[in-house]
Amino acid sequence: VNMATPRIARLAGSPPSTNWRTLSVRFHTPTSWDAKSCAAAIPGDATSGPVEVKHAVFERNGGGVLHFSSAALSFKHITFTGQLWNAISFVPFDLTAQNCGGLNVSHGVFGSTGNAGIYVRGCFLTIDHTSIDFAQGGGIVAIASVVTIDQVNVASARYFGILLINTIAQIQGTTVDFTKAGPLAPNPNPVYGDAITLWTTDASWAQG
Questions:
Q1: In sequence order, what E strands does the chain have?
Q2: pTM of the predicted structure, to 2 decimals
Q3: What secondary structure letter does DSSP report for 96?
Q4: FRET partner for 51 with CA separation of 20 to 30 A, picked from 10, 15, 64, 166?
Q5: CB 195 within 8 A of CB 181
Q6: What is the pLDDT of residues 124-144, one digit of tens each?
Q7: Whose CA is closest to 118, among 139, 136, 102?
Q8: In this structure, what DSSP letter does residue 17 have?
């Protein structure tokens, strides 16, 4: 396809051309994708295989990556900017999966996003050597997950720098700066603005 406007390419196991600006990619087999200068939106469904994305740029998408599979998803040397929703959403359909590969983000740069920079639910997250700036719904949001955060800088997020709900986390070598409060209906006043927030819905956690 050769069009002047951004387009959607649907692939099954083959690497994308580096001149495509908007990609919708479904991987059904283990795949490595090394795209030097793409802007992409990748929805992984419940049947996807492991995906590795390197040297990619995700720019001005509705959401950067929406991954429904429990298979591994890895990003290295990537840039997200101008996403209207979460830059990365890792939300496996099957929360009982025994072999969840998890999400790994290394050497990433996250610019302005309309919601969370990284949002995970029910799986593993490892993030290192990454900056997340101006995330309007929190820099990192993890629910019922196991999280390792190392050498990460979260700056100017709204509501939360890092929000952990029913989550086990190890955080080291990380800075969280300039987190801002934000509106939350029906409260007329800005709320939260926390650097790191820990919530639990399990009373046994609170007691322990």
A1: 31-34, 42-44, 51-59, 65-67, 73-81, 88-90, 103-110, 118-121, 124-133, 140-143, 146-155, 160-165, 168-172, 175-177, 182-184, 187-191, 194-199
A2: 0.76
A3: T
A4: 166
A5: no
A6: 999 999 999 999 999 999 999
A7: 139
A8: P
